[in-house]
Design a protein that fits this description.
There is one protein chain. This protein is an alpha+beta fold and 423 residues long. The protein is built from ten helices and 19 strands. The strands form five sheets. Strands 9, 12, 15, 16, 17, 18 and 19 form a seven-stranded mixed beta sheet that branches. Strands 1-8-6-3 form a four-stranded antiparallel beta sheet, with no helix packed on it. A four-stranded antiparallel beta sheet has the order 5-4-2-7, with no helix packed on it. Strand 18 and strand 19 form a beta hairpin. Helix 3 packs parallel to helix 4. The longest helix has 24 residues.
């Protein structure tokens, strides 16, 4: 019999500052055949989500569960090269059958307590402690772990439900709340009133960044509004030709990127940042475009936006949005932005105060286009209007500069032909 050869699947280094992540989902189940290059699982970190692929053909044997936090370099699975897995499976099956026969034989001899003792030998220290303290019979607990092993959650569930018939609804609710802070996540209440789950690394990072921005910068927001009539007319006029020439549609975001670059050139401090006791002035225009995903908000960066055409901007934005939704953004695609644009209007937001994306000093918030009555040359007319919001670091940007910036953006949108149109 030849020795089984296997290849370890380790968590790769995905960025200098990233030390851990979460196995968010296995694309292949343990025991399934995999091929080299096939995605095995998605690793979610505090910055990006990335798919880890198989390095060889074989049968996958997972060692980490979905939702488990893992360290860089940790072994989360093994791939048994083709031809070796078939030997291991029958052995495992025979072993399991032998154990079941042994337990059955003990029970047949009229000694059920010995069956419990056999099961007790497989308990982890944490489960054993609960079993001893609560005086539980391991033989009567249904295990949901790998190979039918009893998990801590299984033991806690039995403890929690054991006295349920004698309790009132109020008592049961209180017991559930008390059980919540136990080391492992508490099971959800049977009535569905509470669900407890750990935040993903990305969500935790977002939370930390937002709190840090609020604590370290003097954030102030100023507002304006712009008439979208001219942009809508120009876009409608050029759409067919633009789509035929470039293979993608002309959107509004490229206009706002162009208008933002022009405004940053007019008011340079907004394109800078504070670093210790120094002010760093950026003379490049790498614009972050916030993209919402199921895992949270990410901000990929459009490099050298001032040098790119409308088509190049639209292509970059579309590609980043697709990568973000699929969890395929790279670390370098999220780093180094000098200013951010966030479009809450796609979700129906009429007005908001965006929070800075540290260490940047400014962020432009776009909102929903909504027809409203406005005064034009002394007459009331209905126009498609959008509120604009600029949040900025008041430590280095004065109100006059912030207002000037927004007016410059407004002028570029209301008179789009003043922008470097190239279509």
């Amino acid at each position: 019999m030849t020795c089984a050869m296997s290849v370890q699947v380790k968590i790769p280094a995905v960025g200098e500052s990233i030390s851990s992540g979460v196995v968010s989902v296995w694309h292949k189940k343990s025991g399934e055949q995999v091929k080299k290059g096939e995605p095995l699982f998605t690793l979610e970190t505090d910055k990006v989500s990335t798919e880890i692929v198989a390095e060889t053909d074989g049968v996958l044997r997972t060692k980490a569960a979905e939702g488990q936090e893992v360290k860089i370099g940790e072994v989360v699975a093994e791939i048994e090269e083709s031809g070796t897995a078939g030997e291991a499976a029958p052995a495992k099956k025979e072993k399991g059958a032998a154990e079941q026969a042994s337990v059955a034989a003990v029970v047949d001899r009229g000694q059920p307590e010995s069956a419990s003792s056999s099961v007790d030998n497989t308990l982890s220290p944490a489960v054993r402690r609960i079993v001893d303290e609560e005086k539980l019979d391991p033989g009567k607990i249904s295990g949901t772990g790998k190979g039918g092993r009893i998990t801590k959650g299984d033991a806690l569930a039995v403890t929690q439900n054991r006295g349920a018939p004698q309790r009132t609804d109020t008592d049961a609710r209180t017991a559930t709340e008390v059980a919540g802070p136990v080391g492992a996540p508490a099971p959800a209440a049977q009535d569905g009133r509470v669900v407890r789950k750990k935040m993903s690394p990305l969500r935790r990072k977002i939370a930390q960044q937002l709190v840090m921005a609020q604590h370290t910068a003097a954030i102030l927001t100023t507002f304006n509004e712009c008439d979208m009539s001219e942009v809508q007319a120009l876009r409608a006029h050029a759409q067919e030709q633009f789509t035929k020439k470039n293979g993608l549609k002309l959107g509004f975001m490229s206009f706002f990127v162009k208008a933002t670059v022009a405004a940053l050139k007019a008011v340079p401090p907004i394109n800078g940042r504070i670093e210790g006791d120094y002010f760093i002035q950026n003379n490049f225009y790498d614009i972050g475009v916030a993209v919402g995903t199921e895992r949270g908000l990410v901000v990929p960066v459009v490099r050298d936006a001032d040098k790119k055409s409308f088509a190049e901007l639209e292509r970059d934005i579309a590609d980043y949005a697709k990568k973000a939704r699929e969890g395929k953004l790279k670390i370098e695609e999220l780093q180094g932005g000098s200013f951010t644009i966030s479009n809450g209007g796609v979700y129906g937001s009429l007005l908001s105060t965006p929070i800075l994306n540290p260490p940047q000093s400014g962020i432009l918030g776009m909102h929903k286009i909504m027809e409203r009555p406005i005064a034009v040359n002394g007459a009331v007319v209905v126009r498609p209007m959008m509120y604009l919001a600029l949040s900025y670091d008041h430590r280095i940007i004065d109100g006059k500069e912030a207002v000037t910036f927004l007016i410059k953006v407004k002028e570029g949108i209301e008179n789009p032909k003043t922008l470097p149109i190239d279509f």
